[in-house]
Write a structure and sequence with these properties.
alpha/beta, 281 residues, Rossmann fold, 14 helices, three-stranded mixed sheet
């Protein structure tokens, strides 16, 4: 290993459109990287790097000091960590698991309880910004966990993220990401209504989008729509994940017996209905 090369061994599971660029950035920063995926095509994309492929999640855990997970659902996280040949079965005491998936805070705490039996720490670290942002090292990481555990993971996170925000104890990152996605979903509906209203007024929606991009009435949702040429195809592809995250956020509020922000929830529900409907011809 060359002088100055990071010594922390990193494992990564979940090499999709979001996780793939994150893992590539880790490899590009010369961290020893181990990968595992259900489909060989996912790891073949790393043939031009020094990353090695493990035969099982347990094998990946054994080769890693920090394991990053970017799978989709709570069940996926539980599977790769807790199954008989899962990450925890192979990882040595003192390791850290970083959960980049957007899942229930309670799931993070439950797997953390199991990990603690093996003296392994868990950090929840959901992300926002997309694969392009990861490739450009400007992904947002919302971290929850003990100070020392987040600090240990921070150099790895900073290979693909800026900023990395530590929000509090385990589960805090997930709660913040869920709130973010509820607000974003609501804002998509507001942006669609705004541009449709501009159309009815005979305004140039591209010019309106440019004004909103510099004005106080703008939003990230409006900017994304404008950048796509007002094509909702990408948002429609993401609607299953948006449904999941809005449902989890509402369930967390119900469980905590906290009143929902009704206007925000109604706007989010309307957005999801619009995205579920077939696109206009």
């Amino acid at each position: 290993m060359a002088q100055g090369t990071p010594r922390t061994r990193v494992g990564f599971i979940g090499l999709g459109s979001q996780g793939g660029p994150m893992a590539r950035r880790i490899a590009e920063e010369s961290y020893p990287l181990t990968l595992w995926a259900r489909r060989t095509s996912s790891t073949e994309a790393f043939d031009d790097t020094s990353a090695v492929v493990a035969a099982s999640p347990a094998g990946l855990g054994a080769a890693s000091d920090i394991v990053c997970l970017c799978v989709v659902t709570d069940a996926d996280v539980e599977d790769v960590l807790l199954r008989p040949d899962g990450v925890l079965a192979g990882m040595a005491p003192g390791g850290v698991v970083a959960i980049h998936s957007t899942i229930r805070p309670d799931t993070c705490r439950q797997v953390a309880d199991e990990a603690a039996k093996r003296e392994i720490a868990v950090v929840d670290a959901p992300v926002s910004g997309g694969g392009g942002a990861a490739a450009e090292r400007r992904l947002l990481v919302m971290a929850g966990g003990r100070d020392a555990d987040v600090a240990r993971c921070r150099p790895v996170f900073e290979t693909f993220a800026d900023p990395v925000i530590h929000l509090g104890p385990l589960g805090s990152g997930q709660l913040t990401k869920l709130l973010n996605n509820l607000v974003f979903t609501a804002q998509v509906g507001l942006a669609l209504d705004t541009f449709a209203f501009a159309d009815r007024l005979g305004m140039d929606r591209a010019a309106v989008a440019e004004v909103l991009g510099h004005g106080s009435g703008g939003s990230r949702a409006a900017a994304i729509l404008a950048a796509s040429g007002f094509d909702t195809a990408g948002l429609r592809q993401a609607r299953t994940l948006l449904h999941k995250d809005v449902d989890i956020m509402r369930d967390v509020a119900r469980t905590a017996e906290v009143a929902e922000p009704e206007p925000l929830v109604r706007l989010a529900a309307r957005t999801l209905s619009l995205l579920d409907a077939p696109p206009a011809a």
